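Lab notebook, bench 4. Continuing the backlog of folding jobs that were queued last week. Each job is logged with the same field layout so the records can be merged later without manual cleanup. Today's entry covers Valyl-tRNA synthetase, a 111-residue chain. Filled in by technician R.K.

JOB TYPE: sequence-to-structure
TARGET: Valyl-tRNA synthetase
LENGTH: 111
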Amino acid sequence: MQLRRVFVTMISFALASVAASAQAKELASNDRYMCSWGAGTAARAQELKLAGVSLYAARQKLQAYKFSKAWMRMMAMGITEQTYDSKSRFKPADVRQNFYEECVRYKLARK
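JOB STATUS: finished
OUTPUT FIELD FOLLOWS
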């Protein structure tokens, strides 16, 4: 009986260490920044959508923004269009959280 307990405990620790090493993959700071920025963009798009702002007006607002990186404008347009195409009525904070989690999951899966 005692041997069985030791065996079960050892297996539990082994499984826990495997799970911990799988989660230990870390994102590069650039990937983390991209996910965070995209999540904020999706949340702002959701705010505009819920406020009744048209997609056309949202695009115009994006054209007026000054982006620090060349890729940001087109990505912001894509995220905004996808947000408007969605029928979701989630709160912007929920959209931000979901976008960030899915982005991180995607980036980790690519490693």
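OBSERVATION: Residues 28-110 form one domain.
SIGNED: R.K.
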